[in-house]
Each structure stands twice: as C-alpha cells, then as structure tokens.
Amino acid sequence: MGESVTVVLNQALIFFLFMAVGFILCKTKVAHDKFGKVLSQVLLYVILPALRFKTFAQSVSKDTIAGSMKYFICGLILTVVMFLIAMPMGKAFSKNSDTINIYRYALCVPNIGYFGYPMMSAVFGEQALANTMVFTLPLEVFIYTVALYMLDPQKKLSLKKLINPNIVSVILGIAAGLMEIKIPQLLLDACNSASVCMSPLAMIMTGFILGGIPLKRVIAAPKPYIVSGWRLIIIPALLFGILWLIGVDKEVVIVATAMYAMPVGLNAVIFPEAYGGDSKTGAQVCFISTILALITLPIVFWAMQMLVK
C-alpha cells in the first residue's frame, strides 16, 4: 500500500500546487478576466491534440490491438453502460440542462490521462499501462464526440465540431501506430513538450476558475460531494464486484476498476470554459473529487492488490 499512497500523494500535491497558482492569479487580478477562456482554448486546440496523437502513435500497433481486444471490448461496453446510467442520474442534481450535463459527464468520465495513466504505470507497470490505453480508446472517442456535444451550451452538432483537432489527432495517431509510420523525431519532441504542459495548464486554469467562486460555495455545496462519492467509491466498488462475479479476466478487472476510480475528468472544466458554458460547476466537482481522491485512491489500489492475489 505504501507505493500506492506515495504515487497518489505526489500526483495530487503537484496538482494542488498548480491549482493554487491559478487561484492566486485570479484573486490578485494579475491575469485578465478572460485568461481562463484563452487558456482552455489553448488546451483544447493545441495541447490536447498533441498529447492524443503522441499517445496513440506510440502505443497502438497491430500486435497490441490483437492481443488486447478483451480490454477494448470491455472498455467499449463500459463506456456505453456508464453513459446510459449517467443520463437519468444527472437530472437528480439540477434542473438546468447545461449543469445536468456537467454532472452526467462527471459520473461517466474519469480523469484517465493525468491521474489514471501515471498511476497504472507506477503501481502496475508498463504492460498494464499499454493495456489501459487500449481499454480507454472507446472512452477517448466518446469524450471528443458525445461528451464534447454535451458540454457545448449551444448544442450545435456540426461536421466542423465532429472533425475537430482532438478527433483528427486520435485518428492520425491510431493510423500511424497501425501502419508503423516512422514519426519524425522533431514532431515527437514537439508533442512531448506540449503534452508535458497539459496537466499544469489544466490545473492552473481550474484554480483560476475556482478563484472566481466564493470559497464557501466551493466547500459548502453538497452536490459535488455526492457526485464525487459516486465517482470515487460507489462506481468502482460496483464495477469490481460485478466484473469479478461474472468471471472477467482479473487483469481487465484491475484496469477497469482503476480507471473508473479516478477523479472527475478535467474536460468538465476545459470544454465548458472554451465554449462559454458552466465551467464553475465543473471546477467545483473536479476540485472536490481530486481532494477526496487523495483518500480513496490508495484504498482502491490497495484493495485490488489484496483481492486479486
């Protein structure tokens, strides 16, 4: 359990440090009021596409796809199931359609890229990380299609939005991996540099948005705690129990449970902020779930390690 605790604490503390920077920038008025929106657009149109392309180009191949089909199938089924569960549940938290979709997103999309991947690599090793990336392929597609539409307050489904930099980067990355295209080192270095910026910039933006909300409202609001409880405890516990009982391969159970035990995905803040939506609710839920994950994730990882021995 010690290793799991160390990984979680280090990751969470780094996140909180950058969130504090954004919070201070807002409170001291050092940054312009539109800083959060500009930063979210940089993340959405530059940093995220670079990260997606690099990840899929380097992790997807004919061998990994063929050998990890069970992870892909499980990931696809769970992406659909979680969405179907979140659709009616979201209505219990608000009457505003945009806010409802924030809660729906929080219930069905975990933070896989900046909590999930680092922890899987550190706790379970590189092979588990590769399997995890195959498992999350359907979720990645869902995030930049259905979820992107959900979190856009204008709800305009157009070809331009569907063929966005994130979807294009995922398609190009998968194609490059499957066709074993040699990516120029200069491009890989550029994508690596951009992807390193993702987590700090996303957390600075979250902190900046939180700085515009009265702290009492962030801490006292009960709904983010309820959603976080579902996201961090109830969903992974039910998922582990059901998959284990129906005889799913234990490696797949570990990956699925670990990913869906992560805090709320940061796109709950990034997407609404980029499109002029309700980013404050997303920031609240992300903030609370990330704090609580400091306690829940070590327990989840430790429990899985004990139960699958």
Give helix and strand order, one letter per element, not per position. Answer: HHHHHHHHHHHHHHHH
Rg calculated over all Cα atoms: 18 Å
Helix content: over 70%
* General shape: globular
Mean pLDDT level: 83
Determine the structural class based on helices, strands and strand pairing.
Answer: mainly alpha
Low-confidence stretches: none
Task: Give the strand content.
Answer: under 5%
Distance between the termini: 14 Å
Task: Sketch the major β-sheet.
Answer: none
Number of extended strands:
0
Number of helices: 16
Oligomer: single chain
What does this structure look like?
There is one protein chain. This protein is mainly alpha-helical. It is 81% helix and 0% strand. It has 16 helices and no strands. Helix 4 (69-90) runs parallel beside helix 8 (137-150). The protein is globular. 47% of the residues are buried. The mean pLDDT is 83.
Gist of the model:
This protein has 309 residues and is mainly α.
Topology:
Layout: H1 2-27, H2 35-59, H3 62-67, H4 69-90, H5 97-108, H6 112-124, H7 126-135, H8 137-150, H9 159-162, H10 165-178, H11 185-211, H12 215-220, H13 222-245, H14 250-259, H15 267-274, H16 279-307
Helix pairs in contact: 1-6, 1-11, 1-16, 2-10, 2-11, 2-15, 4-5, 4-7, 4-8, 5-13, 5-16, 6-7, 7-14, 11-16, 13-14, 13-16, 15-16
